């Protein structure tokens, strides 16, 4: 799976950074794509990538500020226009349903796919299936703003084929039975304990995609032991007072959260246009605290192994 | 005054043509700028022009399809963010008020300027001041869609300074009195009839900016004797049946309307992405019927003398 940043700016679009949106593309799960936030012109950004609107199955909105939602009506309409037929679910704070429904209805936009809109009002698990669990916690942004934690479930290990062959068990329908049952009786009467022939579980990946926020404990909790934390960095080191007043974070604060949460990697995004020329500064400041930090750019893709 | 095309595409954004928006910039009227339609990413397009959001005083929306309105919340919010304080008036069909008010309220966007929203429901004059008269007529687009006619009022001619000097009337406060009064009595007792010393009225310019439409009589009436007609050309010659079904026009139909209305120039816009490579074809087809035709492109500016 990989993360593609469609917009990495803050507040208003700038020439080199659009307002916030990113997508998680999962080739290992039939190419399913999950979007996080959808600032204006997200569909325009997508025109320059290999992202397919029809593959977007879920859109998670962190908060209702315009730079995170104004691209939604366009993305939803164009997904239909381009032939998307699979159900799409949008998660977001209260207000998201009104915004979407009124935007679509005043513009006489009739979607050719089922659209489900789920308004979130408290911390907890918002989605779970055989492969994933998604939970939210409220951050501190002046208005309701959620951070998302995505946990891939541990996947069963692969069959230890060499060991089976050594026991004289050759490939066939029996291999599938070993995967699916705790014990299997062979035609010759022997009973195998399946776990002896299956490698260790493949640990599921964990990631945290946070909305805009001040430094807060919920951010650390959402990111705990994650493989990747995506965190805003609207301001730079030394601007902590300003960050507090405007409910945002500095590069250094994002790095401290990453360190406290013991994540494997941190990506800084939501970069103010004031750093157009010297955005590398933010990266350097964060790396002083937490070395495996990266700075997002529009159209940049990060591979999550 | 000049027209700048911010988006000249149809339906959905394409790489080279954004969805519809254009602005009329009037340096001769303190730089006042009027916008017509506002598709998604209009504010992004503006970043690449000299258009100032704070100078936009009026926005005229032709109809409520997403490709003509989804950029409004962003333009309104950014105009405030960039320091716009003058009143802004938005005109459009029923629904425009709900769309704007809900988009701004769910996103906690508080404008620092007065915003007036006027919903249009019938043909007639919608605005008039000392310099302009703006009127609308409903077109044929399946949903309510208006065409706008902008008439600049005739401006009084310039003072015939040479003739005044020949009478011994030298420059001074008296020149202003001649402009402002029908007759003026000089210090030496003579009375001048002002109209003898003022050149002929300067004819006001007339332009018609139409929304999406089938061929219809209202289009011809709106454009009558205009200096400029801006007309959609979603389809090409020979696609009249399709144009009729989808409530759009072909290049040839636009040209026939221009000819019937006796306009001085026609600009084709709202070009379907199917003509990405061969959009010049539309221009050639129109010129067969009406020679002074131009094909709009994103960021192209047309000077109206
Ligand atoms: Zn924000
Ligand atoms: Zn349209």
Automatic annotation (TrEMBL), chains A, B:
Q: What is its EC number?
A: 3.1.26.11
Q: Where is the active site?
A: 67 (proton acceptor)
Q: Which Gene3D superfamilies does the annotation name?
A: Ribonuclease Z/Hydroxyacylglutathione hydrolase-like
Cofactor field = Zn(2+)
Q: Can you tell me which residues bind Zn(2+) 2?
A: 67-68, 212, 270
Cofactor annotation remark = Binds 2 Zn(2+) ions.
| InterPro entries listed in its UniProt record | RibonucZ/Hydroxyglut_hydro, RNase_Z/BN
Q: Determine if Metal-binding is one of this entry's keywords.
A: yes
Keyword terms of this UniProt record: Endonuclease, Hydrolase, Metal-binding, Nuclease, tRNA processing, Zinc
Q: Name one GO molecular function term.
A: 3'-tRNA processing endoribonuclease activity
Name the NCBIfam families for this protein. PRK00055.1-3, RNase_Z
Role of this protein: Zinc phosphodiesterase, which displays some tRNA 3'-processing endonuclease activity. Probably involved in tRNA maturation, by removing a 3'-trailer from precursor tRNA.
Family statement: Belongs to the RNase Z family.
Q: What protein is this chain from?
A: Ribonuclease Z
- Report which gene this protein is encoded by: rnz
């Amino acid at each position: 799976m990989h993360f593609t940043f469609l917009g990495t700016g803050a507040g208003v679009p700038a020439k080199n950074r659009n307002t916030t949106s990113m997508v998680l593309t999962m080739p290992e799960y039939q190419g399913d794509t999950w979007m996080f936030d959808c600032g204006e012109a997200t569909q325009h950004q997508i025109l320059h990538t290999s992202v397919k609107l029809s593959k977007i199955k879920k859109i998670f909105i962190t908060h209702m500020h315009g730079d995170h939602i104004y691209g939604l009506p366009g993305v939803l309409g164009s997904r239909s226009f381009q032939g998307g037929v699979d159900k799409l679910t949008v998660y977001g704070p209260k207000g998201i349903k009104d915004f979407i429904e009124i935007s679509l209805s005043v513009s006489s936009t009739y979607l050719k796919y089922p659209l489900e809109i789920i308004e979130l009002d408290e911390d907890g698990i918002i989605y779970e299936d055989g492969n994933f669990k998604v939970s939210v916690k409220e951050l501190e942004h002046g208005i309701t703003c959620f951070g998302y934690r995505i946990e891939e479930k541990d996947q069963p290990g692969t069959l230890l084929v060499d060991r089976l062959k050594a026991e004289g068990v050759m490939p066939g329908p029996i291999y599938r039975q070993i995967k699916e049952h705790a014990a299997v009786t062979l035609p010759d009467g022997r009973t195998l304990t399946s776990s002896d022939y299956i490698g260790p579980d493949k640990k599921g990946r964990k990631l945290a995609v946070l909305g805009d926020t001040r430094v807060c404990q919920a951010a650390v909790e959402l990111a705990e032991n994650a493989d990747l934390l995506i965190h805003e960095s609207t301001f730079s080191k030394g601007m902590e007072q300003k960050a507090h007043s405007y409910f945002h974070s500095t590069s250094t604060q994002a790095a401290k959260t990453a360190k406290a949460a013991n994540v494997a990697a941190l990506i800084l995004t939501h970069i103010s246009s004031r750093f157009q020329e010297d955005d590398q500064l933010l990266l350097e400041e964060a790396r002083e605290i937490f070395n495996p930090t990266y700075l997002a750019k529009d159209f940049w893709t990060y591979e999550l192994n």
